[in-house]
Fold this protein.
Amino acid sequence: MKVGVLMGGVSSEREVSLLSGEEIMKYMDKEKYEVFPIVIDSKDEVLEKVRGLDFVFLALHGAFGEDGSIQALLESISTTYSGCGVLTSALCMSKKQSKRILKAESIITPPGFIVNENKELSIELIETLGYPMVVKPNNGGSSVGTFIVSNRKALMESIEKAFKYDEQLLIEKYLEGEEYTISVLNGEVLPILQIKAKGEFFDYSSKYLDGGAEEVAAKLPKVLEEEMNKIAIACWEIFDCRAYVRIDIIVHEGVPYVLELNTLPGMTKNSLFPRSASFAGMEYSVLLDNIIKASQRDIYKDREHFC
C-alpha cells in the first residue's frame, strides 16, 4: 500500500506538523507500507502530490489541516485519509461551535465569550467572568496565541496579540485544577493521562520541548474515572468522530470540564496520544497501523451507507 504522510501546511502550527510527520515516517511499518513524505507549502499543490497514493496520513495541524478543508479536498478525488471527516473536523476546530454543541448535550465546559475582531468589545461584560481568564484563538491549537491574564491591562494586550492568529477569539474563565487528556482510538478509551506542566500552563513549550511537562497515567477515584470515560465516549459519538481523537479536560473542584477535542492530535515523540497508547502497551508503529485500519474501515462504511 502506498501511504503519503502529508505535513507542513500553511498554518501557525507548521513546525509541529513537520515534527509529527517526521515521527510518523520514522515509525510506520515499512514492511506493510510504501511510505512517501509529502511536504506542502500551499493549498494548490496538494492534489498533484497525492495522486497515485492509496492512503494519506494527515500530519497537518491548524488551518487547512484540522478544519475540514483538506479532508474535503481529498474526498473530492476519492482519496482515503486518516482521522475524522469533513464536518467533524470543522466543528471541533471551531471552539465556538464545539462548545455550543457540548452545552446542548449537557457536557460541561468552562464559561466564556466569543470576541470578534470587527465588533465592538465590551471589556466590562468579559470581566464578569472574573480573573484570571484564558485568551485563545477560536480556530487554533498547540496553545499558539494562548494567554492567561490576571488584570485588564494584560487582557487587552493578549487580545491584541491573539488577533494576529485569528479574527475570532474565545475568552474563558480560567479554572484551576488538574489537567487530563483522554485518547480515544476507534471508539475505545486509552489510558487517561494527567498533565503536569512545568510552566504556568500546558503551553507550546510544555507540549513539544523535552522536559516541558510530565505526563503520567492518571490515578483517579473509580467514580471520577468512569465519569471521564463516559464523557470521552459521549464526545466521540456526539461529533461522529472517526479513527482517533483526543479530548482535553480539566477537573475543577471535582467536576470535569471539557476544554476541546483534537481531531488530528500531535504525533511527535513528546505527544500525548502516542504516550497514552504506550501506557496501553501499544507500540508507536502498531498505533499508526491501527489508525490506518480504522480510518479505512470507517470511510468505506460511510460511503456504503451514503450509497
